[in-house]
């Protein structure tokens, strides 16, 4: 069994930064599952497919040509690393992600990231659906105001426009959409909660590594 650490949580909780560092420390692969929803939304926009056409969106998800290489993301041969981080793309991603057909389409693609020696996966349903047998499940969260501030800093750092009040509203709207949808909603489930409101990224990383070391070995390993 290839071990998986599942890190789920609401928007801008810092899952990505923490998950990537945990993966690096363990020498594991890393899956940013949100990127696949963002890329589906972006590809749909580029193809002129509107967000109220589930079967066309499923086709877009099926046809995605994506490469993750050296910290950059390529969609159909174009570097979209910055474009896919816009708030418009995040908003569209959470609309697309509510569609069961799109989620089903992306399932195999996500599971293919499970390669030796292990995987750290972040998203909304890593522990509840995609890797339900993960050896460690973390629900990573922070207070909404802190998350808005983190997203603000991230966007400004990338030279992208940002307004903290709008970000807070967007984040709350996305949280509600992600938690209230019927298809794979964001749930705490059997994950251990890590509130990083008053923690640095490094402290969160160390906490997860400690939990992982204490994990009982999976049966058969
Ligand atoms: O950066 P942020 O946390 O706001 O978003 P993200 O992780 O890049 O994900 C973008 C959107 O994709 C989220 O708002 C979710 O609606 C959706 N998503 C999902 O439904 N399931 C996942 N496993 C990951 C993301």
Explain this structure.
With 221 residues, this protein is of the alpha/beta class. It has one domain (4-213): P-loop containing nucleotide triphosphate hydrolases (Rossmann fold). Helices cover 49% and strands 15% of the residues. It contains nine helices and eight strands. It has helices at 15-26, 33-47, 54-63, 87-96, 100-111, 126-130, 144-157, 164-180, 201-214; strands at residues 4-8, 29-32, 66-69, 72-75, 78-79, 119-123, 136-141, 192-195. The strands form two sheets. It has a five-stranded parallel sheet. Strands 3-4-5 form a three-stranded antiparallel sheet, with no helix packed on it. Helix 3 packs parallel to helix 5. The chain starts with a strand and ends in a 7-residue tail after the last helix. The mean pLDDT is 94. Bound molecules: cytidine-5'-diphosphate.
Jot down its keywords.
single chain; five-stranded parallel β-sheet; 221 residues; globular; three-stranded antiparallel β-sheet; binds cytidine-5'-diphosphate; Rossmann fold; alpha/beta; 9 helices; 8 strands
Count of alpha/pi helices:
9
Distinct small molecules = cytidine-5'-diphosphate
The CATH homologous superfamily is termed P-loop containing nucleotide triphosphate hydrolases
Average pLDDT, rounded to a whole number, is 94
Number of strands: 8
CATH topology-level fold name: Rossmann fold
Whole-number count of domains: 1
Strand order of the largest sheet: 2-6-1-7-8
Overall CATH class: Alpha Beta
Report how far the terminal alpha carbons are from each other.
7 Å
Shape by Cα distribution? globular
N-to-C SSE string, H for helix and E for strand:
EHEHHEEEHHEHEHHEH
Strand-residue proportion: 15-25%
User: How helix-rich are the residues, as a percent range?
Assistant: 40-55%
């Amino acid at each position: 069994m290839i071990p998986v650490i599942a890190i789920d949580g609401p928007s801008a909780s810092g899952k990505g930064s923490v998950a990537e560092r945990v993966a690096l420390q363990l020498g594991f692969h890393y899956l940013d599952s949100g990127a696949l929803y963002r890329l589906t939304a972006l590809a749909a926009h580029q193809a002129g497919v509107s967000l109220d056409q589930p079967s066309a969106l499923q086709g877009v998800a099926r046809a995605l040509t994506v490469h993750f290489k050296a910290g950059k993301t390529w969609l159909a041969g174009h570097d979209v690393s910055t474009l896919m981080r816009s708030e418009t793309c995040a908003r569209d991603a959470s609309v697309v992600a509510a569609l069961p057909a799109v989620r089903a389409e992306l399932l195999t693609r996500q599971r293919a990231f499970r390669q030796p020696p292990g995987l750290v996966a972040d998203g909304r349903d890593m522990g509840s659906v995609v890797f339900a047998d993960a050896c460690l499940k973390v629900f990573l969260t922070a207070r909404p105001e802190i998350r808005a501030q983190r997203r603000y800093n991230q966007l400004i750092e990338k030279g992208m426009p940002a307004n903290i009040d709008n970000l807070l509203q967007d984040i709350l709207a996305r949280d509600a959409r992600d938690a209230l949808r019927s298809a794979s909603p964001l749930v705490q489930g059997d994950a251990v909660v890590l509130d990083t409101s008053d923690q640095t990224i490094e402290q969160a990383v160390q906490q997860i590594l400690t939990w992982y070391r204490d994990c009982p070995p999976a049966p058969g390993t």
